[in-house]
Amino acid sequence: MWSRTDRTTRYTPDGPRPADVPSPASAPADKDGSRPAPDWLSLVLARIAAILIIFAAAIIIAVLVAGPSSAVIHIPRPAAGPPWWFSLRPSIPLVTFASWTVAGAGGAGIIAGLAAVARGARPSARAMIIFSFLVVATLTVLPAGGSTDVVSYAANGRMAATGHSPYVMTPQELKNSGDPVGQWIPPSWQTNVSVYGPMATAEEWAAAELGGTSVARITFWLKLLTSIAFGAVTLMLDRVLRRDPARRLRAHLLWTVNPLLLWEIVASGHIDGLSAAFGLLGILMLTIRPNSKRPALWKFLLAGLFIGIAAAIKIPYAAFGVGVIWAGRKSLRALGAASAGFALIFVPVYAIAGQPAISALISRGPGTTWDTMYQIFYRPLGYQTFGAFIMPANLTLVAGVAFGAVAILAFFRFPDGTPSLPALSPALAVSLAWLLMWSYQRPWYDVMAISLLAVYPASRLDWLVLVRLILAAPVYMPGIPWNPPIWIERMVNFEGLDLSVYCRLVVAVGFVVLCLFPGWKGLWGWRPKPNSSSGASPVLQPLI
């Protein structure tokens, strides 16, 4: 049992270790043979992982290539250029089972890959990056799938490009004006003003300027920007973890080649990918170099700036600021620099966007609509009479108190797995508390934690996050409003209203238990033996 204030202890997969004891996970240890030699099981697991991940990625591409369906947005084909597709009109059952296969096969592939790496397998990180970039490039030039969110982004951008505020004007008003983009906004979005920050609106405006009056071209530019952000995270992870082969491969499995993220971020074009990229960039700014007490002041300034951008896209990413505050807690100048960087971007963009954007931040930023599929407080107890916009009494209070309590617990009990990156563990702890305890969630929100978890050492957190992601993702698969056969609707309702809800409850309870009774070690059944001949404990490669 130890607390965040105990800085003489560092985390390893075998539990806390004194700071002066060399870590078995260092790069030299991995190269000189202290890691287990890959046995037949690790090689089999690695091959299974590769097959399943490639299979899942191929299904994603096939679903998007087939054109508009219950998984792909319905938009008119552009006159020239991307996105491209064939109008194959696949059936609802076929698309449903194909998308669920992505979740099952992709999730199993990631787990098999992590197990193989833990047992000593060392596939090529470069090959994983190349494969991911090829898949990302292919998905970018195909229509968006898995959600209609990207069409709502296009509407917001079109409003901004035509001189209107998406915080005041609704897509229905855009449609009624006769705008060609407004004609293709799904009914579910037509009465909603934007709930995203001004930096998100700026990205949407840029895409609308480039795409003109074609909703297909606007969505292409939106997906392209999200794909660039996804690739940027890949390169950042590869850069900072290149000294530790095992952690480098684990990061690429969790992020770079993860079929669930390729579906939810790249294929869907969700703006969460942009927030995750800027938020992670801000955290990685604060890597401590060897023989240095803390990062330079200009890095705190940049950290605040980048996290300010992430929060001005989606406000929950302001939670990353907790990590920055912790990293600079011993220096008023460092805290001042970080605060100045945050205010430099966050305050002006909201001032420019005006009072409606500030109202959206206050009243809707964290999410004030509620979805039956993600109630971990009420539905497991038998309350099942509420829906997306019908809240049970005191739900906001219950969720807020639960989040605050778990965030405080996690902050003080979360192991510091990266002493050379002091902002990471607090940011990850608070982010997980929000994701696990706040009532309104979507599967793609999880990238907020996964981008940070990829840098954090392997632990039982991997199980919690992956199980939650794999079982929650099918709730929004295929993802487009549809009229399914009754037997499929029953399956979807069971997955979304029962299995996913109880899964999220179990994961939330498991996270609290881990914080109360630390049991972070022993993830995959293999524990590296200490190597007395290895050098100092591993230090993350500074990003810049």
Structure description:
With about 550 residues, the chain is mainly α. The chain has one domain (about 25-515). Helix content is about 55%, strand content about 0%. It is built from 20 helices and two strands. The chain has helices at about 25-30, 40-65, 90-120, 125-140, 150-160, 170-175, 200-210, 215-240, 245-255, 260-265, 270-285, 295-315, 320-325, 330-355, 355-365, 395-415, 425-435, 445-455, 460-470, 485-515; strands spanning about 10, 15-20. Strands 1-2 form a two-stranded antiparallel ribbon. Strand 1 (about 10) and strand 2 form a beta hairpin. The radius of gyration is 23 Å and the shape is globular. The model is unreliable at about 1-30, about 365-375 and about 525-535 (pLDDT under 50).
For the largest beta sheet, what order do the strands appear in spatially?
A: 1-2
Which structural class is indicated by helix and strand composition? mainly alpha
Number of helices: 20
Number of domains: 1
Calculate the mean pLDDT score and round it: 84
Helical fraction equals 55-70%
Radius of gyration: 23 Å
Low-confidence parts: 1-29, 365-374, 523-537
Element order: H for helix, E for strand = EEHHHHHHHHHHHHHHHHHHHH
**Biggest sheet features:** 2 strands, antiparallel
Distance between the termini: 35 Å
Q: Overall 3D geometry? A: globular
Proportion of residues in extended strands: under 5%
Q: Using DSSP, what is the number of strands?
A: 2
